[in-house]
Batch of 2 targets.
Target 1
Amino acid sequence: MPKLREALAEAGFREVQTYVQSGNVVLSSGAKPETVARKCERTIAERFGLEIPVIVRTRYELARVVERNPLRDVADDPKRYQVTFLDGKLGPEVVRKLEEVAAPSERFVVDGREVYAWTPAGVARSKLWALLAGRSLGVTATARNWTTVTTLLELASGS
């Protein structure tokens, strides 16, 4: 992660911070989110030889994700509560598939370009999680547990 921070800073981003080892980056830029994503992708490809899709949320968008928190009444373990960030909206056929595979104890809410998923038994055997973590959503996606989501917001807010 130090090399990633260095590469992004050299690419012109400001206040570059990383969180844990899974590619979470908080940075400052005056560019549009789509432009930031493409520039990060190019930087990663040029510096590390990796073709990795990047999904960007502004601080405001991330704050809205945390504020919405539609499963707050049931999701009582932040490690089992995930937000999947999408680069576009899911098609209705994908949402139906998620409904079909979700276990009775699991809950999920599709809200724009995010899917909130509560998997109380964990993700290891969850068909819902397997689908959310896979490549069959029809859009680029990346997921973070609730602890990571709220920590990223704190970092972005300068707390």
Target 2
Amino acid sequence: MTADNDEVISTLNDLLETCRDGEYGFSTSAEHTKTADLKSLLTRHAEECRTAGQELQALIRQLGGEAEEGGSVSGALHRGWVSVRGTLSGYSDQSMLDECERGEDVAVASYRKALKQDLPPAIRSVVQKQAEGTQRNHDQIKALRDSLKGRH
């Protein structure tokens, strides 16, 4: 037996917030990085988050739900943290990668939590695909961060 519609919609809205937070975090970090390659990568990840969010909004509407507006409280803290940390460290690429990796830790955890829910098969496959993308983003950001750390 799968979760009822309201539970599924709530789970999808949680993930939608995560996507919006990721889009904002990556975009903001891209604005403050010094390296063109890194700026391009972070901009691409922001776009992936936006696309994932649109996909989730469509699923929420298909289920007869309303997509919630805005990001999460932790996302608001994340956005504030990007700003504070950037100011303190002069917006170094290292600090932006540290922040992106922290944000992706939260996103990976959100997707893992969602996949523990009893989702309908079609929705589970979308969430699974997005979770794999989030994990790839996380691993890529972490590897970049670690390689940058090794150069200093």
